[in-house]
Design a protein that fits this description.
The protein is mainly α and 453 residues long. It is built from 20 helices and no strands. The protein starts with 19 loop residues before the first helix and ends in a 10-residue tail after the last helix.
Length: 453
């Protein structure tokens, strides 16, 4: 197993007697988090959530055994039309309000776009009832709370103060788009936070297997997170942490197997998975057809050069990860190893995988950029050793710049962005900057054991 310096580790979260200053800072952080959470919950209660509507319709149809294959063109039209017509058969009491959100979503989704996995539809079906408005409100609230808790957990694992943790929960434009669409990127960030938390449980003998199960279930939920597993596998293979890799791979396999078995039983057929697999080329082809809302790096490059390179991008970024880890490994030979350094290394790899999943795909909506948040937190984390404090600040400042580019809200105060496609260069530059910062950190020289403070 390779050794890693505590210089790159998160700052330890120390416990001791509370001081007036620490109490004030903790209270300020809690207030920031509460304000941000309240703002997110308020925003989520006013949207049509056209993505959530589709998850709800298909999941509910599967729960009532009304479909066993929602991936054919005929079934997409049939399910969409049936759900639309159902609205006008709902009983209306004297004080009942018209289901405006459901009507708006159903009008835009008369024909469904069913590309999500059977596991995702299974979970939405289990959580759904006949009351769409109540289900939508519950989904928005729980997704936002899970997202906020995940950020808080990741911040504390990385050594942020309470004030910094609260500030990191403040929203930005990808979050707003996520809430408006009712998509699942908040749940994906929450799964990454849960994965990191399980990985950090030092006393759990099976923590790598259990963390692998969490990641396996998340991959079956939305497979773009498979790049996290690939990045971790590359890192652990190069650093010869083969036992950890074997335990994690066992967990990934168990998680995916549970999802496939459960969802196959829910749809009453395992063939629903092969039907979903057949939709992948169709989904990817939409990257070329999507209008100005497609923020994909491949689309940006194609618009500027006429060259379409999406198939090569995942391999380019993963090769960069491998090169950075290999370079850092040769310089880590005499470095001190501790659990916090291990967590920082693993968390950086996971964050890289999530960010690469945004940069390397052919179709990217702005809310997908929420998956850049875990890597941004890694790059923003406080230094773990006194000797590294000054060295960490350039990376932290650069990470803030990257977040401002991805977030867009503050950027739009000083830059005129006439249409969504005009924002694509800023968002992609921010994500590329995070990847570059992480690669530099993985490859940089590490302090020796004697440098630990």
């Amino acid at each position: 197993m390779s050794k890693r310096s505590s210089e790159s580790a998160p700052a330890p979260v120390t416990k001791g007697r509370a001081t007036p200053a620490s109490i004030v800072l903790a209270a300020a952080g809690a207030l920031l988090a509460i304000v941000a959470l309240a703002s997110g919950l308020s925003l989520g209660s006013r949207q049509a959530c056209i993505d959530y509507y589709q998850f709800w319709v298909v999941g509910r149809a599967a729960s009532r055994h009304q479909t066993s294959d929602p991936y054919t063109s005929d079934e997409r039209a049939r399910l969409g039309e049936a759900a639309y017509r159902e609205i006008f058969t709902l009983p209306a009491g004297p004080d009942a309000k018209p289901p405006f959100a459901r009507i708006a979503a159903a009008t835009q989704r008369r024909v469904l776009e069913t590309y999500s996995t059977p596991w995702m539809y299974t979970l939405f079906g289990i959580a759904s009832s006949s009351d769409y408005d109540a289900d939508q409100d519950r989904f928005e609230a729980l997704s936002t709370i899970a997202y906020a808790l995940a950020i808080a957990v990741m911040c504390r694992l990385l050594g942020f103060s309470w004030l910094e943790s609260g500030a990191c929960i403040l929203w930005f434009k990808p979050f707003e788009d996520e809430v408006i669409a009712g998509n699942v990127n908040r749940i994906q960030v929450a799964s990454i936070g849960l994965f990191a938390w399980v990985q950090s449980r030092e006393r759990w003998r099976s923590r790598h297997v259990l963390a692998g199960v969490v990641l396996g279930l998340a991959i079956a939920f939305k497979p773009n997170l498979a790049l996290i597993a690939v990045a971790l596998a590359i890192g652990w293979a190069i650093t010869r942490e083969l036992r950890k890799l074997a335990h994690a791979a066992t967990g990934w396999t168990i998680g995916v197997a549970i999802a496939i078995a459960w969802s196959s039983a829910y749809f009453r057929s395992a063939r629903v998975w092969s039907a979903w697999l057949r939709t992948i080329p169709e989904l990817l082809s939409q990257g070329r057809l999507a209008g100005g809302g497609n923020y994909a790096l491949a689309r940006l490059v194609a618009d500027q050069t006429g060259v379409w390179l999406p198939r090569a991008l995942p391999f380019v970024f993963l090769a960069l990860v491998a090169l950075a880890v290999a370079t850092g490994r040769t310089r880590r030979a005499d470095a001190a190893h501790d659990v916090r350094s291990e967590l920082s290394f693993d968390f950086t790899l996971a964050g890289l995988g999530a960010t690469i999943s945004v940069l390397a795909t052919e179709l990217v909506w702005l809310h997908y950029s929420l998956l850049c948040v875990p890597l941004a937190l890694c790059m923003l984390r406080p230094p773990g050793a006194s000797s590294a404090r000054h060295a960490r600040w350039p990376a932290r400042v650069a990470a803030i710049v990257a977040l401002l580019l991805i977030g867009l809200d503050l950027l739009m105060l000083v830059v005129t962005i006439p249409r969504p496609s005009a924002a694509s260069p800023y968002v992609n530059c921010g994500a590329l900057l995070l990847v570059a910062l992480a690669a530099i950190e993985l490859a940089r020289p590490c302090a020796t054991a004697g440098a630990n403070g």
